[in-house]
Sequence to fold (357 residues):
Amino acid sequence: MESLDLGGIGRLTLHLAKGFVDKGYRVDLVLVKKQGAYLDQIPQGVNLIDLEASRVVNSLGRLGRYLAVKKPDILISAKERINIIALLAKILYKPKTRFIISIHINHSEQIKYQGASLYYRLLLMIAGLVYKRADRVVAVSRGVAADAAKLFKIPLEQIRVIYNPLVTPELAEKMREQADHPWFSDSELVLILGIGRLVQQKDFSTLISSFARVRQEIPQARLIILGEGSKRAALERKAAEMGLEEVIDMPGFVENPYSYLDRANLFVLSSAWEGFGNVLVEAMAAGTPVVSTDCPSGPEEILEGGRYGYLVPTGEPDQMADAIVATLKKPLPGEELQQRAMSFSVEKILADYESLF
Fold:
């Protein structure tokens, strides 16, 4: 990986690393540069390899030396820049190591909504040239797999869909911690939760519009949005213009969002696009009902086409409001949601990787 500062991917990588160590594998965590918020969470038994490179491109030779000295059986890489460097090392140094690259995002959808800079287009072009040299490609959802096959011209049979490892014993412990928000102490309130970066992709603007309609039917409803990002000012302005500033709270980044998930009445994923939709699974693991946009890619697979929660079109606040009200009036049993969430447990995902090995 580039560092341990990559948000969800960094956290998921540590889940896998710990799981492999617990199963008796020798695990090296190879970083371009030793930095990031998760450094103090590296599991015991995982060997940290710091390539000490100032930039990703400068890590190529150092990665080649690592492969020559350590001779790992398998190297797993994540995200496009790192995948490209890993495969260039395979091409140039010809190690006996098998290379598994992982793709975590639906690139076509990202380009559709955000456009593509010259750098991004060049990155994807290089990826298309070298990805065929991977021994296997892992995609985090069927939607991501289909997009990668089309975009990078990879035979679909070379791509294995392995979902993200999200449900861990540590997750349950964090859910049991106290949520530090005054609204949780008022049993009369109905609490709706959104979590994610305050950016275009997460489309919290639609959630706020939807919430205005929900309030007409459920006046005791409150909305909490956890996260930080470039759209904060615009979202706060919209809430104020709609007269909702007293019933919407955006406390920013919180250390333990899982305690909020455990205590909310409903979680809503309002994204315009995703790679997978991790927080949907985490909400279900808490037994919390969910509503999601049917965005590409991930939510439809997680919720099995709507079996475990309403799927609504992206950017449609009225349909989202109807789904929120219907779910609050008749939520699925928490035990049913938790059972579905176990499909994304670390144990299940480790078994999928072992099958791939």
Notes: The first helix runs from residue 8 to 22. The radius of gyration is 21 Å. The chain has 15 helices and twelve strands.
